[in-house]
Every structure is written in structure tokens, then in C-alpha cells.
Amino acid sequence: MGLLRYTLYRFLQSIPVLIGITIITFLLANLAPGDPVRLMLAGQEVDEELIETIEQRYGLDRPLHERYVTYMAGLVQGDFGHSIHRNRPVTELMLNRVGPTLLLVLSAYAFALVTAIPLGILAATRRNEPTDHISRIVALIGVSTPSFWIGIMLILVFAVQLGWLPSTGLVYPWRGPDGYDWIETWPELIYQTIRHLLLPMVALGTLQMATLMRVERTQMIESLQGEYVKLARAYGVPERTILRKHAFQVAQLPIITIVGLNLSTALGGAVLIETVFNINGMGRLFIEAIQQLDYQLIMGITIVIATMFVIGVIITDIAYAYIDPRVTYGEGE
């Protein structure tokens, strides 16, 4: 099976998964206690007639199955619905918020990969030495500590006590220098973006970094003990060449799998990190939608996150088969 055919096959396989996610999310959101219209009008003196009119406008007075079919019919045509509380299309609301979330998640992943792989290799090549012990302790702390707690500690230390880095007000590079009164040039804009992004990036990326470092160390140790490595050493191949050409590539296969599967963890962590650092991303929008029982907005954000996760898994599968020649594009299926 060729790459294109395999990719199409995997995308077709993901359709039932996404439909199942829409059903579960729709039921959980609509069966949750509370009334979105009464929540929206809380604190105002309104009569029942106005409430019924608003419910009819958004179709909330219709049976559950009918509402789901209507929603899916719109979704197939690219319509994510209309937010009840914000009175704006869900697509427009998500487009305004997806940029900060992608910036946060991708930077956290970059931080995790850049730090985890060298540290994992270093720990494996110096096994049972002080460097290895320190890296294992750091990895254990990173895996065991919640991201939001790391974020709060970073704010207290680097923003409140030392005053080195800001804890709020993320600068968006796509707005350009003209989008900010206090920024004049592009280099200054990039500098301020990095400066404002540093704390949330470290808070969100620490868990990914610790997980990847533990796996990298384990896989490198196993790879360095392989028969082909022993053979290379017997032929007098330099240790650096063995590490780079024979051990490193084989050890990266589980890393690729974890990077793809941990995308959902990173997106889930972004919800909390955006709240801690007051970032106007999809995560904060999702929490606000749940608090307000904004059904259409909950569905839209869930579908987007689920689609991103499915695409991440498919890309992981394709990359896995590309790197390891033993893995084929579904020929056994």
C-alpha cells in the first residue's frame, strides 16, 4: 500500500472515531444540569415568554436527537453553529483564539524535544554516574508534578520575587509591531514574544520533557547494548560514530510515538496553563463555554481538538513507517 493510499485509509478510519466523539460530547453537554438561557439571563428580570423565545431561536426546545441531527447536518457543511452567550459564530470565536493555543503548545513541544533528547542521551552514555542520577531525579519530579502547579511556582519565583519575566500579557507575533503601542521593531516584537512565552512554555513543556527524557534514556541504553553496536565496537568504530549512526536512529522510534500520542495531553494541559497565565486561547474559551453551558461552543472546540489529535496520530504513523523500513503502510491489513 502506497503512502497516499495509506494516508487516505487512515483518514477514513478516523471518521467513525470523530462521530463517536461528537455523540458523547453532545450528550454530556446537553444532559449536564442547568439551563444555558437562564444562565445567560441571570441577574435580569425576564418573563418565561422571552426565555421560550430564545430557546426556540437556538432550537433548545426540540428533542435531543433532532438537535444532534441538525447540528451534524450543519457541521458537514462547515457550520460549527452559533454561540448562545456571545451571539457570534463559533468558527469566528475559535479562529480568534486558536493562534495563542498553537503558539503555546508548539513552543512547549519544541522546548521538550530540545531538552529531553540531549539529556536522555547524556544520561544513557553516563549510566549510573552523577549526571544520570540527576537527570532521573529531574525527570521523576517533572512527571510527578502537575503543570498548573509548576506554572504557579514559576510565577511566584521569576515574576513576583525576582521580577525577571512577565506572567501575563502574551505578545502575539502575527499582530506585528503596529499592533502594540510600546513595540516599534520586529526584533523587539520577537524578543517580547519569547520573554512573555517563556514561563507558560516551561510550565506546559516540563511534563513532556520529563516523559521524553525517561524514554530516550531507556531506549538509548537498550540500543547501546544491541548486538550490532557490539559488532561495531569490535571493528573499532569510534564511540561517537556508533552513537550517532547506529544507536540514535533506532532509539527514536518510541519517541515519535510518544510525541504524537502526547498531543492530547499537551492540549489538555494548555487549558489549565492558559488560565494560570491569563492567555486568551482555546483552553480558556473552552472553560468559559462549559461554565456557561454554551453547547455549540463546547461542541466546536471539542471537535477541533479531537481532529488535531487524530491528525497528530496519523502523522505519527506515517513518520514511524518512514523512519523504520521494517514498518510497512498497512500491507498486512
From TrEMBL:
Keyword Phosphoprotein: no
Gene3D superfamilies attached to this UniProt entry: MetI-like
Family matches, as InterPro entries: BPD_transp_1_N, MetI-like, MetI-like_sf
Domain of life: Archaea
Residues annotated as transmembrane: 12-32, 102-125, 137-164, 253-277, 297-323
GO cellular component annotations of the record: plasma membrane
Domain ABC transmembrane type-1: 98-320
CDD domains reported for this sequence: TM_PBP2
One of the GO BP terms on file: transmembrane transport
Its membrane topology: Multi-pass membrane protein
Keywords: Cell membrane, Membrane, Transmembrane, Transmembrane helix, Transport
Protein family per UniProt: Belongs to the binding-protein-dependent transport system permease family.
Official protein name in the record: ABC-type dipeptide/oligopeptide/nickel transportsystem, permease component
Organism name: Natrarchaeobaculum sulfurireducens
Lineage of producing organism: Archaea, Methanobacteriati, Methanobacteriota, Stenosarchaea group, Halobacteria
